[in-house]
C-alpha cells in the first residue's frame, strides 16, 4: 500500500482472540536469544513516574510524585520480559499506602513475570514543615528518600529506606584557631564550616516514618540547614554551630549512637560527606552496624550523588 493512502484507524478495537494471535517476539516460536544464553540478574524499567500515597506520622495522607525502578531476574532460556506488567502492578496499588503494600506489589509482578526474584526502588522528595530557630516563620524542608524492597531467590523479603539529611558542620580545629587569633592577636576571624550531607540507610520490619529518621538526624547532629531565616535565626544558627562543632568522624559516630539503640532498625549504614569550604575536596566517612549486610565499598558515583543540589 502506498504510504500516502495509509491512515490511522481510530475506531479499531481488537478482540481478545485477535490479541492472542498478535505476534509475540519475546515468547513466540520465532523467539531467538541474541548473544549468550545466560541468566540476567536484573532487567526491568527505570524512572517511570506516578503519584503514590504516603502516610505521615501525624496520620495525614500525602500524595507525592514517585520515580520507580522495578526489576526482576531473567532465566537463561527466556528471551525477555513484559516490562509493562511491572508498571501495571503499581497502578493496581496506586490508591494504597505504598509502605504497607510494597511486599504485595513485588509479589504481584514477580509472579506475573514468573521470576525467581524481584526488586523495587521508589524515589521521592518528602516535605516536612519546620519552624525557624527563633522567629515565628515556618518553611518546608524537602528530603531525598528512597524506599527499597527486595525478594531474593529464597523468597525472603527485605525492605530498606535511604534518607538524606543536609546539615552544617563547623570545624572544631578552625574554631580553636580562630579563638586563639581573637584572644592573643585581637584578630577578627570566621570559623570555617560547610554544607554537609548524611545518607542513612536502614533495614526495617516494624513501622517507621520519615519523620522518625528526621528526628534521629536532628538528635544526633542538631545543625540542620534552615529554610526561612531572619536576623535572630541567623544569630541562633551561628550559636548552634558553635555549640555542636564536629568533624566528619564525629558526625558518623553521633548518628551511630542514635541508630544502634532504635529497636525498629535491623541493620544500618551511615555515609557522611562534608563538602569543605577550606579544602578543594570533601571529607567523608562510613560506619556500618555490627554484622551489617550493607557494603562499606562506596562508589565514586554514590559519593558524587551526595553533593547537595536544590
Report on this model:
By secondary structure, this protein is of the alpha+beta class. It has a single domain, classed as Roll (Urate Oxidase), CATH 3.10.270. Helices cover 28% and strands 33% of the residues. It has 8 helices and 8 strands, in the order αββααβββαβαααββα. The protein has helices spanning 16-21, 84-92, 98-112, 172-185, 210-221, 231-243, 248-259, 300-305; strands at 40-55, 61-74, 118-131, 138-151, 157-170, 193-204, 265-275, 282-288. It has an 8-stranded antiparallel beta sheet. A hairpin with a 5-residue loop joins β4 and β5 (157-170). The protein is elongated and about 90 Å long. The chain starts with 15 loop residues before the first helix and ends in a 5-residue tail after the last helix.
Q: Given the helix and strand composition, which structural class is it?
A: alpha+beta
What's the shape? elongated
Terminal Cα span: 54 Å
* Number of domains as seen in the coordinates: 1
Mean pLDDT: 88
Strands in their spatial order, largest beta sheet:
1-2-3-4-5-6-7-8
CATH superfamily: Urate Oxidase
CATH architecture: Roll
Main beta sheet: 8 strands, antiparallel
Work out the number of β strands.
8
Low-confidence sequence ranges: none
Query: What Rg is obtained from the alpha carbons, in whole angstroms?
Result: 25 Å
- Name the helicity range: 25-40%
CATH class: Alpha Beta
Amount of beta strand:
25-35%
According to CATH, the fold-level topology is Urate Oxidase
Spell out the helices and strands N to C.
HEEHHEEEHEHHHEEH
Helix count equals 8
Amino acid at each position: 500500500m502506498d504510504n500516502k493512502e495509509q491512515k490511522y484507524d481510530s475506531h479499531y478495537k481488537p478482540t481478545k482472540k485477535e490479541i492472542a494471535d498478535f505476534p509475540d517476539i519475546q515468547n513466540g516460536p520465532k523467539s531467538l536469544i541474541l548473544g549468550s544464553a545466560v541468566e540476567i540478574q536484573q532487567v526491568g524499567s527505570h524512572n517511570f513516574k506516578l503519584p503514590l500515597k504516603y502516610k505521615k506520622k501525624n496520620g495525614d495522607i500525602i500524595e507525592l510524585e514517585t520515580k520507580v525502578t522495578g526489576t526482576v531476574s531473567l532465566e537463561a532460556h527466556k528471551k525477555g520480559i513484559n516490562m509493562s506488567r511491572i508498571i501495571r502492578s503499581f497502578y493496581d496499588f496506586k490508591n494504597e499506602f505504598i509502605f504497607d503494600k510494597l511486599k504485595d506489589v513485588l509479589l504481584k509482578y514477580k509472579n506475573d513475570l514468573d521470576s525467581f526474584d524481584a526488586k523495587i526502588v521508589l524515589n521521592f522528595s518528602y516535605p516536612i514543615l519546620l519552624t525557624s530557630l527563633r522567629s515565628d516563620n515556618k518553611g518546608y524542608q524537602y528530603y531525598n528518600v528512597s524506599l527499597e524492597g527486595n525478594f531474593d531467590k529464597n523468597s525472603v523479603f527485605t525492605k530498606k529506606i535511604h534518607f538524606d539529611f543536609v546539615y552544617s558542620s563547623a570545624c572544631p580545629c578552625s574554631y580553636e584557631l580562630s579563638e586563639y587569633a581573637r584572644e592573643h592577636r585581637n584578630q577578627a576571624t570566621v570559623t570555617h564550616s560547610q554544607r554537609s550531607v548524611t545518607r542513612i540507610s536502614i533495614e526495617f520490619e516494624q513501622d517507621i516514618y520519615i519523620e522518625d529518621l528526621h528526628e534521629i538526624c536532628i538528635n544526633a547532629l542538631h545543625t540542620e540547614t534552615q529554610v526561612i531565616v531572619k536576623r535572630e535565626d541567623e544569630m541562633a544558627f551561628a550559636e548552634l554551630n558553635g555549640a555542636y562543632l564536629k568533624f566528619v568522624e564525629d558526625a558518623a559516630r553521633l548518628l551511630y549512637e542514635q541508630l544502634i539503640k532504635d529497636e525498629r532498625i535491623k541493620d544500618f549504614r551511615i555515609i557522611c560527606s562534608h563538602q569543605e569550604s577550606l579544602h578543594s575536596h570533601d571529607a567523608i566517612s562510613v560506619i556500618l552496624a555490627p554484622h551489617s549486610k550493607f557494603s562499606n565499598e562506596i562508589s565514586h558515583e554514590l559519593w558524587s550523588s551526595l553533593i547537595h543540589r536544590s
